[in-house]
Amino acid sequence: MSKQKPSLPKGTRDFGPAEMGKRHFILETIKKVYQKYGYAPIETPSMENLSVLQGKYGDEGDQLLFKILNSGDFLSKTDQEDISSSRNLLPKISEKGLRYDLTVPFARFVVMHQHELNFPFKRYQIQPVWRADRPQKGRYREFYQCDADAIGTDSLLCEAEIVLMIHEVFEKLQAKQPNSLDYAIKINNRKVLSGIVEVIGASGKETDFAVAIDKLDKIGQEKVKEELIDRGFPTESLQKIDPLFSLSGDNRQQLNHLKTFLSTSEIGLKGVAELEEVLTILEGFGAEVPQLEIDVTLARGLSYYTGAIFEVKPKNVEMGSISGGGRYDGLTDNFGLPNVSGVGISFGVDRIYDVLEELNLFPESNQETTQVLIVAFDEETWKYSLKALNALRVQGIKSELYPEPVKLKKQMKYGNDKNIPYVIVIGSEEMKSGKLTFKNMQEGSQSNVELPEIIKQLTNSSVN
Amino acid sequence: MSKQKPSLPKGTRDFGPAEMGKRHFILETIKKVYQKYGYAPIETPSMENLSVLQGKYGDEGDQLLFKILNSGDFLSKTDQEDISSSRNLLPKISEKGLRYDLTVPFARFVVMHQHELNFPFKRYQIQPVWRADRPQKGRYREFYQCDADAIGTDSLLCEAEIVLMIHEVFEKLQAKQPNSLDYAIKINNRKVLSGIVEVIGASGKETDFAVAIDKLDKIGQEKVKEELIDRGFPTESLQKIDPLFSLSGDNRQQLNHLKTFLSTSEIGLKGVAELEEVLTILEGFGAEVPQLEIDVTLARGLSYYTGAIFEVKPKNVEMGSISGGGRYDGLTDNFGLPNVSGVGISFGVDRIYDVLEELNLFPESNQETTQVLIVAFDEETWKYSLKALNALRVQGIKSELYPEPVKLKKQMKYGNDKNIPYVIVIGSEEMKSGKLTFKNMQEGSQSNVELPEIIKQLTNSSVN
């Protein structure tokens, strides 16, 4: 075949070692927190039957599914009418698609494994998803989702623990001081939104209200009101909502104001009671989460939420929400298993990456990288180095010997390019005396020490 | 939409928490060993342009590629001739495919990033691949590959280190005694095979020889000879190879016999010299690898190997090779970058899983699972439990409180089904005295101790 200049499909990315180190830092942090709270990992296949995926994400979502062509002579079972249009042909030549999110595959998983699962079932799932979206800055056709859901229980402990998990993840991600990420963990409840709609006399228009109020951050209060009028809300109803834009006081005080506002709405008061209970459970933990903010204007677009909703918003970086979730009913309704309530959270890995990069919050050292490089002068010292290399590795120290005794400069460049923090130089002097030249590349210092002492220093400084 | 009974595409699998724990045990073990030897992680997209994938795996491989349908009105740019056959239509409606292995995407990666990379470049890559193969026992349409390759150096240090990595991986995978996996790390060199073919007077038939001798394990010596005759090897040439089936002595002695056998073949002797050098480097390390076996009948089917070849074969379980690799030239020739030599190894995760399962070698405890479950009698003790839960988690102990104070039996069943090794029971007595009931579910023992003592015990027993 002819030589070709290779390229990547639009909207997809390669990750080299440096990016991988940073991505793992984020993913491992989230994974450890999920595990600490009792969430267990699952994985589902990249492909699902189109019957599982289609009709779950709206018409636009169906368009964005990547479809897989049937194998072999895919046209063999088609007739003249099938090939008359893409719409007719599609179901005849494609039965599978790539997953679009982790929620629908999870619902399918729960239904298929319902008799093996242990309810309440708390699972996390960290896998890529694919969307045939128009690629643009920060939007890719393949990206990781990072979800945790607890299903089969109504307990508000789950909501409280989601707040704690979010808090713990972002505290761990910015362990490196003095930079820091200022962020809000916003919480609301869909029942509060329903109550507001009821109180202002617009019952039945919950979704319109949610869609409009969701834009508050972007378009401001006046434009939201205009949109509500366009959506058929009477002008007088909108005056009633004004107090909601300026609820004063701490979370408890805001909830008290809200109770007065919603005093005639049963569902609204239920929503407030749920929010209060979440605060009570958090107090029970004795854990401080100063970032937690009740926000009655938080709506989240998705229609399937029925209780608590969450969103994390950076305050000192220009960036949309970096994490979000909420409680839903009927996760598995589509697959014939009704009444499965759950609550979930999802971290936006790509956005978190960009935020940490902008604030320079990634750790200096990549924990996955070689810790020490051995550099040898010639054939003889190179062979001598093998034993030192072995001794380092036996102690679990990530180490390399440059594969050939080429010019020192070339070997040092290799270590430098790879960001290896320590170098051991072995020449004939070192071989004779047993005292090796040990360089700390970050500090630019060096000493002559025997191998056991080097191992001791590396083991102490090790981040393993 | 109508309710539907969901299903999985043929040849794909869900992994629940128990399987995930075992799979992570394997993958993390391999990953840590790769890192210890200086291999750095990369990831490439699941989709590649078909121009990158096609023509690299032979005609059969091209058939087995999963192709992705172009988005939108995919037929819009086709004409009557295009839709006359699948073969004509395919290139018009599909431009992307799912990766078939990690080697071709790696070659593409190297070429596209050649100016940023640091040679010799040692990368590992652990990602799923997809093949539209007929599913059968142990063969899936989506499975993980787990590769490490060192490119841009001819140094036989890489070969020696691959032997050490294989050895370390399998020793770590069977840390649990007394069961053990008996296995051979077989090594040969393609140049030795070329030498043999030359010596028996069949130059030019290297590939035929490799394909036939590769079946020795399965069909035996006589059938291999028959196949060689079918492939046009003269009968007298086959008598000459007899000594090769019974080389005696240890690895060094076998290589000495081989040197005599190959004394008239320059390339054959080069192959022997390379094998000797690998042994010499391993001796230089001072590391013992008793499983290493020179095997001149090891051929490996793939045609692109040019130097060392490796294969790991279990001896006390019925199973094909569980790991393999070798040295190749011209990895990136297809993409216009010639003369890139490298050597790589790949672990067969699914087969290793089956082997460890059969020998009961997986660790008893799943390191990713909740370590302690708190069980409360009623509303009041449940609220009291939150502080204990927080204290456990602050110490990094994976812990859960059952989300509601339901019947004790139900809570205990949850812990049991989830294999949680410790349970703390909190009733009104415990609340008053501060001495909690602490159960070790594996030993069936229990004690009444205060929380700090429980934390101490859990931290000591912790495998974190």
From TrEMBL, chains A, B:
Descriptive protein name: Histidine--tRNA ligase
Organism, scientific name: Marivirga lumbricoides
Gene designation: hisS
Domain Aminoacyl-transfer RNA synthetases class-II family profile: 1-403
Gene3D superfamilies according to UniProt: Anticodon-binding domain, Bira Bifunctional Protein, Domain 2
Similarity comment: family membership: Belongs to the class-II aminoacyl-tRNA synthetase family.
EC number: 6.1.1.21
Chief location of this protein within or outside the cell: cytoplasm
Leading EC class: ligase
Protein location: Cytoplasm
